[in-house]
Amino acid sequence: MLRGVLFDLDGTLGDHDGSVLTALTAWLPTVGMTADPAMVERWHTVAETHLAAWRRREIDFPEQRRRRLRDFGFAGPDAALDDVFRGYLVEYQNAYRSYDDVAEALAAVDQAGLRVAVLTNGSAAQQRAKLARMGLADLGPVWTPDDLGMAKPDPGAFSGAVARWGLRPEETLSVGDRHDLDVLAARSAGLRAVHLDRLGAGPAGEPHRIRSLRELAGHL
């Protein structure tokens, strides 16, 4: 029997990509760059490269930010790079918003009598601040690699979160936008999983796939 829903945050509850675009549009001109589509795409590519290294625990969270800036041509000591990144971060935090289907999904989960928690690959302070900005500070437990010592797609991140929640894996449904991180990894840990494929990017063969959180009620 299902007892809890474990949501991803960025790309699932919160509009990370939209927030990044808004932030880059405001910030890049202040550092002499243009927020054209190619530059925005490059930002995402560079970010994923160094976030992947952080997820593997090869570098810490501040260092992945510095490496992203170095790939964009910024130079200088760590403190200077941290100061540059703060300019982007302020814009990103101000832009962060929830998707318009979140409230309906959470209401469906509540109506089904299920518990809610969040498992997210991000720093604990930043991710909890995002939830507070969205009015979801009291949503439920929030687990990050800072809490668990490992990040998705390590199945241990799911196992650790579920154990701390007091549930069994088979009683928990993982919902997220990354098929590799939120679906396959969750299933490896024994959880059920639903892929939130907002952009229709696939994989098309995934049997438990939704295009909006408004469709989540059918999987509860």
State the CATH architecture of the largest domain: 3-Layer(aba) Sandwich
Biggest sheet statistics: 6 strands, parallel
CATH level-3 fold name of the largest domain: Rossmann fold
Mean pLDDT: 96
How many discrete structural domains?
A: 2
Brief description of this entry?
One of its GO terms (molecular function) is hydrolase activity. The chain has 220 residues and is α/β, with parallel strands linked by helices.
Overview of this structure, please?
- This is Putative hydrolase of the HAD superfamily.
- GO terms for molecular function: hydrolase activity.
- Keywords: Hydrolase.
- The protein is an alpha/beta fold.
- The chain folds into two domains: 4-15 and 97-219, HAD superfamily/HAD-like (Rossmann fold, 3-Layer(aba) Sandwich), CATH 3.40.50.1000; 16-95.
- 48% of the residues lie in helices and 10% in strands.
- The chain has nine helices and six strands.
- It has helices spanning 16-27, 37-55, 61-71, 78-95, 102-111, 124-133, 145-148, 155-165, 179-188, and strands spanning 4-7, 115-119, 142-143, 172-176, 192-196, 209-210.
- It has a six-stranded parallel sheet.
- α9 (179-188) links the parallel β4 and β5 (192-196).
- α2 packs antiparallel against α3.
- The protein is globular and about 55 Å long.
- 34% of the residues are buried.
- The model has no long low-confidence stretch (mean pLDDT 96).
